[in-house]
């Protein structure tokens, strides 16, 4: 077992499962599926969940998600790897579904076309006139346009979209809840945003949707997505937690999972 995972366990989360991994198939990550599995085995993980991107009705270039051809390969290669690594690690093939409220019917149809073992919900794009702006991009042009629209408005729309997604799409986990505008300095949640987050968590509890603790946040901002007070509010509602590295390179599989027990201990104590 890798030393990075040889730490005290937390009863709140399984740090031997990486539930959020991407590959070169999504057009903005690197590495083959097999390389990610090999890294997971080296780090002592018991399960790895590929959560490749699916977007519908999004006008954005270059595309940062898989098309039908890529998904066909995804499942073929995934089946080969499941056979090759049988007995060493469990491999699941899931999807990170970027919710577009204008394409709900198409989304539901897409979900019936593939045997996804896990469906993660996220929202990556904000509709502006006839185009879509990437809410998680570091592109200066996108950040400037989103700032000009108004960060409070953008964040409110983002949270309303996630609430609608959880209530209208069969899903298992909500990804990187507070990663919106992660590359825009000085972003803060207003009282309205906090209330929307509570509504989102209530909807997650009602629909049995888990909350992802996304450890990529340690690299982006020095703390995981979401922040401890959101984790504490989720725990108060009995929402399950899932660990995800959001790896976009093989070396990032299981990154910072050793920090999760302390993080959750802090969040748990902040409930009182």
From TrEMBL:
InterPro entries linked: Histidinol_P_phosphatase_HisJ, PHP_dom, Pol/histidinol_Pase-like
GO biological process terms on file: L-histidine biosynthetic process
Keywords: Amino-acid biosynthesis, Histidine biosynthesis, Hydrolase
Catalytic activity annotation: L-histidinol phosphate + H2O = L-histidinol + phosphate
Enzyme Commission number(s) of this protein: 3.1.3.15
Pathway annotation: Amino-acid biosynthesis; L-histidine biosynthesis; L-histidine from 5-phospho-alpha-D-ribose 1-diphosphate: step 8/9
Highest rank taxon of the organism: Bacteria
Record GO cellular component, one term: cytoplasm
GO MF term list: histidinol-phosphatase activity
Transmembrane intervals: none
Similarity annotation: Belongs to the PHP hydrolase family. HisK subfamily.
UniProt name for this protein: Histidinol-phosphatase
